[in-house]
Known about the structure:
Blueprint: E1 3-5, H1 8-20, H2 26-30, E2 38-44, H3 63-70, E3 73-79, H4 84-93, H5 97-100, H6 108-111, H7 126-132, E4 136-142, H8 154-157, E5 162-166, E6 184-187, E7 190-193, H9 199-213, E8 219-224, H10 244-268, E9 275-281, E10 290-293, E11 296-299, H11 307-310, E12 314-317, E13 326-333, H12 337-344, H13 361-364, E14 376-379, E15 385-387, E16 390-392, E17 400-403, E18 407-411, E19 417-422, H14 439-453
Parallel strand pairs: 2-8, 2-9, 3-13, 4-5, 4-8
Antiparallel strand pairs: 1-13, 3-12, 5-6, 6-7, 9-12, 10-11, 14-17, 15-16, 17-18, 18-19
Amino acid sequence: MTTKTRSNCVVAATLIAAFAVGMLNPAAKAEPSGIKPNILLIMVDDLGKEWISCYGAEDIETPKIDALAKGGMQFHNAYSMPQCTPSRATLLTGKYPWRNGFVNHWDVPRWGVGYFDWKQKENTTFARLMKRLGYATCAAGKWQINDFRVEPQAMKKHGFDDWAMWTGYETGNPPSAERYMDAYINTPEGSKTYKGEFGPDLYADCLIRFMQEHKTEPMCLYFPMALTHTPLVATPDEPEATSKLERHKAMVRYTDKIVGRLVETLDELGIRERSIVIFTTDNGSTRSITGTRNGKEVKGAKAKELEAGVCAPFIVNGPGLVPAGVETDALTDFSDLLPTFVELGGGSVPDDLIVDGVSFAPLILGKTTDSRREWIMALGHGPARLDKDGVRGANDFATRVIRDKQYKVWVSNEKKIIRLHDLKEDPWEEKNLLDSGLAEHKAALRKFQAVLDSLPDKDARPLYEPRAANPWDKKFKISICISLRFWDWNQPRKSA
C-alpha cells in the first residue's frame, strides 16, 4: 500500500460527501464545472520536519499546518534540494540542478556576475507556462536569483503579474539586508524600505490582495517565505523572545499563523473548494538549531545529504479536490512541481522544453494511489564558485543523494556510490551497507548505479547572457602555484 487514511470514519465521511455532490467520478475532481483550480505553493525557508508537529515535532505546535495535513495529503518521501538556489531553480524550471546549472548556492544580489536569465528557454518557469493557460500569477517573499538593481522587472519577465519580493542583500546597499523588520522589498513600482513594517506580513498582504483582486480568475500563487531563515528575530507576536531557540520557535509559530491567514482568505473569498494548497520547505533547518522529532534529537541539517536536510515536509490540501486524511509514501521531488502545475491547469509541457520532473496530479486528485517515480534525487550542497567563464558548480560533478521508498545512496564528486542505507531499518542513516553481501542490498546498488550511469559526467553551468560588470560583482581570483628548484651552483650542471 502506498497511501493510508488516518481514520476509517474520515474515509466514510469523505465518500458520503463526495456522493452527495456528485464527485465520485475522478475526472470531475480535476476541474469541477470546467473551472481550473487555483494553486498556492507555500515554501518555508530553512525548516525541517522536526519543527512541524504533524511530522512528529515535539518542541512546537503548528496547528494551521497540521490542519492542512489532516484535511489533505501528507507526503513522507518528498525531496527538496539541500539549499536555497538549487531548490528554487529546480521547482521553477522542473529541471534538476545538474541540468539547469544552479548546482550550488549563488546569491545573485550579493555576488553578481551570473543570474537566472529569462531569455534562456531552459529557464522557462512554471509561472510563464501557467500564464499561457490563462492563470493570473503572483509571487511574494524571497527570490534571490536576480538582482533587481540590474533588472527591476525581472519578476515580470519570469512570468509573474504582481510581486512583493525581498531583494536579497544587495552588496553596497545596507538597507537591503533587512527581510524582516524595516523590510527592503521590490514591487512593480521599485525597491524601498518599509519602515516599521514586518516583512513576512507584507509578503502575505501582497498575496491576499492579489487573491481579492483576481478571485474570479484561476490563480497560480508562489510564496517562497522569508521565514524562518536567519537572522533569528523576535516576531510581532513574541517581541520578548531573546535566545536563539526562543526566536526560532517564535518564527515557526509566526509561519504557522501566516499559513492560516492565507487559507482563511481562500475560505472568506469562497474559492477554497477550487484551490489546491501545497506546503513545503526549501531544505532542512539551520544547523545551529536542534529540535526533537519522534523522540530523537535532530540537529538542523541544511546543506547536508542527510534526510533531515533534504526530505522535506510536503502537504497538499484542497477540499473537494484532494482526498482528505491521507498519508502517502509516494516519491516526489521539486522537479515534479512544474509538470504537476501544468497538468492541473489543463495543459501539457511543451514538446521542446526538457523537464526532469513527472506530474503527480493524478495522485493528489485521487485518481491513483502512487506517483510515477521510481527514485528521487537531491543535490546542491555548498556554494558555487567563479572561473574565467563565470559562475559554475563547486565541482565538475556535484555530490548527490538518490533514494527510493526503502534504500538511499550517497554519491561522491567522483561519481561513485559511497554509502547505502536502508531507510526503513535505519532512518537516521547510521549504518553504511555498501559492503553488505546480501542479495537485496546488491540489487539496490545495481538499481542506483543504473540511475547514476544515465547522468552526465559533468554538471551543466547556469545559462545566462553575460552582462556588463557591476562594482559589486565578485571577482575571479587566479591562484598560481610556482614550483622553484634551488640549485647548488657549486655543483657541476648536467648538459640538457
